[in-house]
Amino acid sequence: AYNIHVNGVLHCRVRYSQLLGLHEQLRKEYGANVVPAFPPKKIFTLTPAEVEQRREQLEKYMQAVRQDPTLGGSETFNSFLRKAQQETQQIPTEEVVLEVLLSNGQKVKVTILTSDQTEDVLEAVASKLDLPDDLVGYFSLFLVRETKDGAFSFVRKLQEFELPYVSVTSLHNPEFRIILRKSYWDSSYDDDVMEHRVGLNLLYAQTVSDIEHGWILVNKEQHRQLKSLQEKVSKKEFIRLAQTLKYYGYLKFDPCITDFPEKGCHVVVSAGNNELNFQVRRPSEQIKEGSFKVTRMRCWRVTSSVPMSNGPSGSSPGKSEVKLELAFEYLMSKDRLQWVTITSPQAIMLSICLQSMVDELMVKKSGGSIRKMFRRRVNGALRRSDSQQAVKSPPLLVS
């Protein structure tokens, strides 16, 4: 069997014959000229070298399928991974209560099936909160790790190929939680969300949380104005003022290492406003800030290195040993491209942010709407709860 990892964590374990079955199904649906070549069958038992060669070929095959917009987004591919995830983690299909956090720490409990995919769970949460259907696409579920100070470190946006309940429970660690947060970057979309009471409350709670955790920069006078608006419960005016502040709508990442402007620099990366913002501490202790626009990135890649385990075949290397890197090729000046590397456990989340910024820019360019970016499942049965849960306002800002 072959292990498939997501973020360095075991997602599922599949056999060659299962992957061959998936390959044949994709060929039937999309044609042989669209689907990448599959590692051939062998009549005789494989040698250790051939086993490793096949593993590498299968890895390339799975990545090629996942990166193809048609194949990677297909229900055939995603349902294969969801089913394999459930079987590997040995979690039977049954009704469970899943706790989803809001930005203000409020817990929303939804009754779902363990086999419900990300979209089903998102819809169940939206239904419980009474969020209208046409606003569901503005929000996403994220897997986060709660830090000691009560803040969240973002692991990844939950994908369509996974089952949220299985993803969070299989980690066997109460620090991992699922949180609901807006999933767009352009603050002009805030207007759509603020039209509805629940959307306004969710956006307000997230903005207050980002200010409290220092993600949005606020000076003393701005802080005084924000506090005054909170006391008057002027939520729209509060958000309008926050929109003018530095790093509004950015996602802040944990401190990590970069090779820009020189090797071994400590950096705090924030993603937002169609850019990656760097706050770099150089070896000389000097702090330097700069931004990399996604429109000037030619390409990017995520690489992971996992040391070979000497233990039994079932043992997995310690989480700290998995090294993830995001590297992007950037147009520094008219004729000069340069690779910039970020070494961070959150490299995959950074890549997801870059991809969603590009997707959003493409939708805007084509004159599309973010509402259309959210595809409702037509035949996915969804049990809607009768009890509605209002989004409570967060406590007042603390200075």
UniProtKB/TrEMBL annotation:
- Specify the superkingdom: Eukaryota
For membrane topology, the record states: Peripheral membrane protein
GO molecular function annotations of the record: phosphatidylinositol binding
- Tagged with keyword Protein transport: yes
One of this protein's Pfam families, by short name?
A: PX
Q: InterPro entries of this UniProt entry?
A: PH-like_dom_sf, PX_dom, PX_dom_sf, RA_dom, SNX17-31_FERM_F1, SNX17-31_FERM_F2, SNX17/31_FERM, SNX17_FERM-like_dom
Q: Which residues form the Ras-associating domain?
A: 94-185
Keyword Protein transport annotated: yes
Q: Which UniProt keywords apply?
A: Cytoplasm, Cytoplasmic vesicle, Endosome, Lipid-binding, Membrane, Protein transport, Transport
Q: Name one GO cellular component term.
A: cytoplasmic vesicle membrane
Ranges where the PX domain occurs: 1-88
Q: Subcellular localization, per the record?
A: Cytoplasmic vesicle membrane; Early endosome
Gene Ontology process terms (BP): endocytic recycling; intracellular protein transport; signal transduction
Q: What does this protein do?
A: Critical regulator of endosomal recycling of numerous surface proteins, including integrins, signaling receptor and channels. Binds to NPxY sequences in the cytoplasmic tails of target cargos. Associates with retriever and CCC complexes to prevent lysosomal degradation and promote cell surface recycling of numerous cargos such as integrins ITGB1, ITGB5 and their associated alpha subunits. Also required for maintenance of normal cell surface levels of APP and LRP1. Interacts with membranes containing phosphatidylinositol 3-phosphate (PtdIns(3P)).
Similarity comment text for this entry: Belongs to the sorting nexin family.
Spell out the PANTHER family in the cross-references: SORTING NEXIN 17 AND 27, SORTING NEXIN-17
What name has this protein been given in UniProt?
A: Sorting nexin-17
